[in-house]
Amino acid sequence: MERVEPSFGYYYYPEDNKVEAMDKISHYGLFSTFTLLLSTITLIHRDYKVLPEVFDLSKAMMKFKTDKSQDLYKTLFKIDKTIEIPKISAVGPDPQHTLYSEERVKGLYPYVKRFFGLSDELVDIKNNLLKKYNLLDKDFISVIYRGSDQFTDRGGFISVNCSAYEKLARGIISEIPTQERNILIQSEEHRVLKYFGGQLGAKFIKETDIGEIGRTDAPVPNMGVDEWLKNYIAAIFIHSQSKTLITYTGNSGFWATLFRGTMNEVYQETTFSLNRELFFKKN
Questions:
Q1: pLDDT tens string 160-205
Q2: Which one of 93, 118, 143 terminates a domain?
Q3: N or C terminus of the chain with fewer C-beta within 10 Å?
């Protein structure tokens, strides 16, 4: 049976209109797996003028499974074939490592709505978390700071300290007359959570805590990974619904922006794109 590799990490079988994850991405990160899948879908749409119908991700996300044969894509998401995609918006395998634009985010949003709608189970989890953390009005500032992703993804990023994120959030709050807007922080680093909690009274969705972790460690819990996974995706979706989103440049931040569907009120850290001479001086 003929198969091709439209982007990276997935085979496409034109006869069956099927996408299949490859072994070489079996231990990739959570949203990096989905970023590659999104790229594959858009390139199939561009090159074959069709949208794939069948997906097999049973070989992917092995570090998040308790049952190795499970297809987590079918557990986490559902496809809505009623969502139309009016214009092809093809992207390569690394769109998360770029400066996000309104044109790109809006172009990819229909693909996200069609192929990455939360499953019924995750919708329930998301709604329960919204109630538990009093985030139903969505009038909150979301901050995503992923230190280990910054360090390990593609060999390391130049990145600002989390205090820069706190300063930006504080400045936004100062412009609000009531100054009572909630802050929701997402980070795998306890020091960051403690800092934001102390400085701004920030909330953290504790169901996404992975315990103590070093900056160079993979941000994956040692126990209960299947339940953590569902809570984490639901949490990123909640971050996407915030009034204002402050995010690093990387997969989790990219998907919070994609779920949002717009760059309106999004602040993206751009240090990755700056020349290193702006950060270091040689005498």
A1: 889 999 999 999 998 876 656 789 999 988 999 999 999 999 999 9
A2: 118
A3: C
Q: With a threshold of 0.90, does the pTM exceed it?
A: yes
- For residue 245, give the amino acid letter: L
Spatial separation of the C-alpha atoms in residues 247 and 202, rounded to whole Å: 15
Q: What is the mean pLDDT of residues 209-216?
A: 70
What DSSP string describes 17-50? Answer: TEEEE-GGGTT--HHHHHHHHHHHHHHHHHHHSS
Q: Starting at the edge strand that comes first in sequence, how are the strands of the sheet with 18-21 ordered?
A: 10-13, 18-21, 54-56
Taking the C-alpha atoms of residue 163 and residue 179, their distance in angstroms, rounded to an integer, is: 19
Whether 255 and 186 share a structural domain: yes
Claim to verify: residue 161 and residue 194 sit in the same structural domain: yes
Average pLDDT over residues 239-265: 95
Look at residue 283 and tell me if it is in a domain.
no
Q: For 124, how many CA atoms within 13 A lie in the half-sphere containing its CB?
A: 4
Per the structure, how many domains does the chain have?
Answer: 2
- Both 22 and 98 in a single domain? yes
- Cβ atoms of 204 and 193 within 8 Å: the answer is yes
At residue 236, the 3 state secondary structure works out as helix
Distance CA 74, CA 61 (A): 12
Same domain, 106 and 155: no
Average confidence score pLDDT of the chain: 90
Residue type, 277: E
DSSP 3-state of 188: coil
Mean pLDDT of 139-145: 94
Decide if 148 contacts 218 (C-beta within 8 A): yes
94 or 8: which carries more pLDDT confidence?
8
DSSP state of 203: B
Contact call for residues 222 and 211 (beta carbons, < 8 A): yes
CB 37 within 8 A of CB 7: no
Range of the structural domain that residue 169 is part of: 125-278
